[in-house]
Amino acid sequence: MSRHPAAHPSAWAAIADHLHHLGTTAVFGLPGDDMAPLGALEDSDVHVVLCRDQRNAVFMATGYALASGRPGVCVIGKGPAVTNALTGLLEARSAAVPLILIADGTRLDRVGTGAFQELDQLAAVRPYVKWAVRVDHAERLPAALEKAAALAVNGTPGPVYVELAEQIAGEPVPRTGPWRPAVPQRPAPDPAALAATAARITAAQRPLLLVGGGARHRNADRRIERFAERLGAGIFTTASGRGTVAEDHPLHCGVSGLYTVGPVDALWREADLVVALGSRLEETATFGWPEGADQLPVVQAVLGEESLVLDRPGAYVLADVAATVDGWAGLLDGHRPDGTWAERVRSVRAALAQRAADRAEEAGKRAPDGTVPVARVLADLERAVPAGRVLVQENGLQDMWSYFFPHYALGAGGGSVVPSEQTPLGFGAAAAVGVRLAEPAGRPVVAVVGDGAFHLFRAELPTVADAGAAVLYVVLDNGGYGWLQSNLDRVSGPGSRFAFTRPRPTGTDGLTGAYGLGHRRVTDPDRLSDALAAAWREVAAGTTSVVEVAVALADTPPGMTGAAGDFPERAEEE
């Protein structure tokens, strides 16, 4: 590689130049007292989103990374700024998101003196990141930035941490050559492993595909759907894998595990093999699967060995999902499965659609006056917002309705961003800002969130207004923390002196009005469609709008009888 000596006038100038090299279009954060980061970015075309809270900044950067496939970048101060960001790092690591967190650090000559906001930040962040480094000397910064970017995007993606010692922030930074490329390298599968797993797949008579978050951005030309057709396999996704495959495909049957209900859950009892693409087989994705060491073998395709799950029978391939699917497709060329299983999958999908319509009708009849059935919210939302929208979600009691296909369904152009297994409250509300800035200007971004999550996020409404990130927020208001209230009711009954929900005004109308954002509140189902349409017109014109919808605590998603700790009680199907 040719060498081109260069010197940046300061550390932050070097960082700004590296971000330009990475193709970063948005940076999120809350800098410390030193405004050098903003000074370095002043004349760049990078969209800088100045947040009110470091946790939300990391959530936004995570949403940006999930939507774009590129590293999210977050810049913060030191000490409590770093500890505030840890929840965001926990989510980014759990979601396998490429993210670069850059933080201030105590001056080298003051380390150990009890300096202002001094903290052993490396020790604090290491459990949550793939790699953490402190840069004490200016000449070491370029290599640290390059390694951080390489580790963030390669292998199983994840967050990395770069700490900039205070004394080098204004020092010139020498660089001896051009920045290295920072693109993910996609390892091909080992031929022997590919052939062995292809043989197991060919032998299966009733296969299912499980598409996880590791398959995001790896389904160009619909290779996964074509592979499913070759096998006659039913297609399921994990929650994080949603948006990877077209949910209008006739073999698609919904989200696996916790979000699979009758009659489609019968497929899991009848299947003889699961082909898991980019899934760590997390607890929610396997909830309700047949138990026993000799049941339901899995062929798992994942990038990193740390994602392997070997407590089930089966086999695995450590490689890029796209390369693995293409390799299997080549080896299975000419394979003609028995069409009986594919027909069974299609018939169950049709029965699921009818059962969902019946459930929605039943929920509508049970809805108390002054509330709107959540199934109605999802149906009206689909009509109000153009196709191709990205739905950003939380994981609360009522907003979980949208996880249950086909109460909400993504077409070939639809997108989805959800929290990982960590499900930190407020993630979806904040991540929607990053998603909006990562997606093309004309693509709709809608966040369906509970009122508990939204209220935790509301301090960022001025950030939303300043950022010009037009998002449609649909807030399902059940009076507070509905999941906790349901668990409390199960333990203490309705007479408890404790409460997580109360009917009271939210105050959101005043906040949105103060920041020039749209707001509507709906308590009548017949007024919902017009409210969503009007709100969408505002968003399409460039203004974030919030639609608060009153919903009933008892309006639980399909297949659930109520909360039971971490997971719901499942209803018995007829």
From TrEMBL:
Q: Per UniProt, which keywords does this protein have?
A: Thiamine pyrophosphate
Keyword rRNA-binding among record annotations: no
Family annotation (Gene3D superfamilies) = 3.40.50.970, TPP-binding domain
Domain Thiamine pyrophosphate enzyme N-terminal TPP-binding: from-to ranges: 13-123
| Domain named Thiamine pyrophosphate enzyme central: residues | 195-311
Q: Which parts of the sequence belong to the Thiamine pyrophosphate enzyme TPP-binding domain?
A: 422-549
Pfam families found in the cross-reference section = TPP_enzyme_C, TPP_enzyme_M, TPP_enzyme_N
Show the InterPro entries listed in the entry.
Answer: DHS-like_NAD/FAD-binding_dom, THDP-binding, Thiamin_PyroP_enz_cen_dom, Thiamin_PyroP_enz_TPP-bd_dom, TPP_enz, TPP_enzyme_TPP-bd
Q: Which family does it belong to?
A: Belongs to the TPP enzyme family.
UniProt-recorded name of the protein: Thiamine pyrophosphate-binding protein
Organism listed in the record: Streptomyces bugieae
Organism lineage string: Bacteria, Bacillati, Actinomycetota, Actinomycetes, Kitasatosporales
